[in-house]
Amino acid sequence: MQSFWQQLLSGLANGGVYACIALALVMIYKATHLVNFAQGEMAMFSTYIAWAMIDSGLPYWAAFGLTLVVSFVGGIVIERLVIRPVEQGPVLSIVIVFVGLLLVFNSLAGLIFGYTIKSFPSPFPSGAWYGSKYMSSHEVGMIVVTLTILVVVFVFFRFTRLGLAMRAAAQNPISSRLAGIRVGRMLALGWGLAGAIGAAAGMMAAPIVYLDPNMMSGILLYGFAGALLGGIDNPWGAALGGIFVGILENLAGAYVVGTELKLTLALAIIVSVLVFKPAGLFGQAPVVRV
Amino acid sequence: MKPILELRRVDAAYGPKQILKAVDLTVEEYGITTLLGANGAGKTTTLRAICNMIPRVSGEIWFAGKRIDRKATEEIARLGIAHVPDGRGTFVDLTVEENLRIGAYTRRDKGLAADLERMYTYFPRLKERRRQQAGKLSGGEQQMLAISRALMLQPTLLLLDEPSFGLAPLAVQEIFQMLRTINQDGSVAMLLVEQNASIALELADRAYLIETGCVITGGPAAIIARDDAVRRAYLGY
User: Fold this and answer.
1) Taking CB atoms and an 8 Å cut-off, how many pairs form between chains A and B?
2) A chain contacts of residue B98, beta-carbon cutoff 8 Å
3) How many domains does chain B have?
4) ipTM
5) In terms of pTM, does the model score above 0.80?
6) Is residue B118 domain-resident?
């Protein structure tokens, strides 16, 4: 029984990371109606930036905050330089740009930081959490940090004027322009937020999965599975889906399929959602008037 | 009366297809001007050209002493032109009140709550449904919402694209009565595009007639309403 709780709680910790990645995917999906395949590599690159800052002597939380800022600005720059020119183009052009970004970040990380696996520090004390048998302190910290991010993002979109304008711009750009909303800026801001949220997920995951250029490939897959499960057009559904996938992955890995087949589970979720409930659990099935 | 909006020899085209040909049109401050015409005559295109929503526009458009034909749509809105687009442009996933708040996005003054209340007195039905998803409103209610959303911008000019389109006669009457009240209450001029000529001529003080992209006549609404050709073609008596 003790090991069950342990698996459940560490699944919750992983789920927080998947939820953040899922949320970042949804934010870009809302604006472009495409899944950003480069989201994981962007987060990985941000994590390397954090590592470089810590390595050069910066305290952990300073590096954490600075990395969020750098990733936010980086997301905006990517949108302006790379996405904007193909925004009106055919779907495939944007997909190719996403794939290109993935390769560029992956290779850049290898080129600059090398392919050898690095360890990434955790800001939380090592060992069990207050003598608890169930969780490590890092896992508790992960849950706190990722949930805080989800709550902050929720409050921002739900209760602020800017958050409302961003939702409006993603949903109906033409009407938004007529209301004086600078839609281009809102979309760029969305990329910035996605970059920052992804960076936080990367930094929380890195102490567990270790830092290397491919660290996010599995996490992106789980995050994507979570986003689809919750509904790719519903940020809160997607975040819940991410948490659920984290728990499911850990429990199934421990008791059902074994650790080797865990990633297969993510693919199984993706395929079954697409086949049986394409809108996800909380998403809206698209209604088209003919 | 001073003109607030002036179109001078405006051409507009979608790709190779020219829609507007040398359109001249004036809207007076505080007045209601209507632009009448059949389906496909270029009414919607004229409104879109004013807000720079069409890729190719030439000629000059002046608003409140400023030339606006090179400005981006969102900057034109910020100057005080609110556009109630055709199809109503509702943010369907957001609530009624969120829709109204989006209308007021550019404002930073404290009068927002008072203006929300003003909209709710114009259209009490919106108040009943303020927490509902806007996509679930009826066509008439969505039109009321679109007009209110536009007014939340505190515009000096309101562009209305066929507010009667697809609505029940009773809803049309209610909306046009409110348009009169809104025009008398505030300092907002209106440019009203309509297919329903009789109700538009009743409301407006000036009227233009557009056919296949050319403005063929214009003048005080009362005189246009008595014009034989207009009566036969648009009023049907």
Assistant:
1) 67
2) 164
3) 1
4) 0.92
5) yes
6) no
